[in-house]
Amino acid sequence: MIARLADRGEQTIAKLADLPGGTKALKAVNDLRERVDELGKKVRGIDEIEKRLAKVERELATLKRAQKPKASTTTRARKASE
Question: What pLDDT shows up at residue 80?
């Protein structure tokens, strides 16, 4: 059954190519398929970029926490007396 459907599909494509403008239409469909494939590859790469970004954000947060100056007791005492 699948072979019959494939044969019908091939026959239909051949008939489309014979129609006026059919070759252009088939070329447009083929170009679209290639563009969709390229887009799919790029979208799959986004997941990896998101993971790397999350890691960098965590590292940055850790560095920011480490750089915060700790308030000394003399600073607190000065603020309390003011």
Answer: 60
